[in-house]
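Propose amino acids for all 272 sites.
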């Protein structure tokens, strides 16, 4: 394995922070070193300088590096309290006093990893909303490899264990020892490669879900991502982040404590 000097590592750290906002504190140096060394080995490169030049000029390799240095761990039905806050508080709030509104509910799942989170949300919404209510989920990530897995929508039994049995049977089928999300639900989710530091992909979103992503970002990148979400969310729309994450003061969102979880809301502009 290639051994990086701290100076060489810093060059890659700065590059990854600038491109993707990713932060690598000291306790993650070993992880970063082995991910970088693995990519260099696959490319047949044994110089940090040459590899640095390579990722500057080769988007496909940059994407493979992004795959290698991100933690794509996800689970179906992660933090059920937050899901309940969505069905029992967020959705009714979105519809309160807006009977005339017929457009579909628009959701952005940022940092969706291998798809468990957007599919869980699709299952939960399909199960709790009246049949006539349309919704669409745009799910994004910087990891191409994770997005490919998400699009296939087929998971081993151990990965869907947390799904309540009744919901599982309504949301997909078992075959060849794996669970496959139904076509009906897959139709509701679109996966797109996107960096949360870039301008928003979804406009007038009713809800942005970005859980367990901000924690991997450097402080300035976190601020930028939150600004992107604020631009994306419609007046009165919602943002939900990971249970162990917090928004900085003056984020432009109001915190709402529901019986199930804390959610953040973009204030409505006063009507003229
Ligand atoms: C730990 S996973 C969280 C998955 C899911 N949100 C959940 O809570 O189960 C973090 C994901 O954030 C993605 N990510 C990290 N930085 C990102 C960025 N700048 N833009 C978009 N996605 C990013 C990673 O690729 C990874 O898939």
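Proposal:
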């Amino acid at each position: 394995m290639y051994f990086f000097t701290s100076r060489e590592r810093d060059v890659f750290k700065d590059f990854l922070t600038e491109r993707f906002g990713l932060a690598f504190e000291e306790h993650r140096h070993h992880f970063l070193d082995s991910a970088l060394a693995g990519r260099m080995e696959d490319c047949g490169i044994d110089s940090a300088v040459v590899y640095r030049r390579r990722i500057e000029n080769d988007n496909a390799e940059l994407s493979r590096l992004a795959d290698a240095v991100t933690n794509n761990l996800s689970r179906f039905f992660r933090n059920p309290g937050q899901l309940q806050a969505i069905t029992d508080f967020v959705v009714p709030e979105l519809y309160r006093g807006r009977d005339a509104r017929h457009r579909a509910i628009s959701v952005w799942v940022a940092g969706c990893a291998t798809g468990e989170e957007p599919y869980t949300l699709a299952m939960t919404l399909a199960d709790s909303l009246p049949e006539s209510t349309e919704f669409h989920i745009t799910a994004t990530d910087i990891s191409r490899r994770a997005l490919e897995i998400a699009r296939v929508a087929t998971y081993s039994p151990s990965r869907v264990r947390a799904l309540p049995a009744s919901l599982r049977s309504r949301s997909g089928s078992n075959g060849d020892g794996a669970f496959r999300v139904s076509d009906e639900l897959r139709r509701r989710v679109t996966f797109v490669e996107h960096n949360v530091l870039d301008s928003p992909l979804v406009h007038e979103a009713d809800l942005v879900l970005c859980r367990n992503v901000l924690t991997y970002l450097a402080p300035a990148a976190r601020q930028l991502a939150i600004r992107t979400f604020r631009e994306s969310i419609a007046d009165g729309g919602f943002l939900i982040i990971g249970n162990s994450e917090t928004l900085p003061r003056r984020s432009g969102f109001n915190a709402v404590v529901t019986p199930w979880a804390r959610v953040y809301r973009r204030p409505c502009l006063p009507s003229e």
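The pocket of S-adenosylmethionine is lined by residues 20-22, 70-75, 78, 111-113, 117, 141-143, 146, 195-197, 211-213, 216 (CB under 6 Å). The chain has two domains: 6-69, 80-265.
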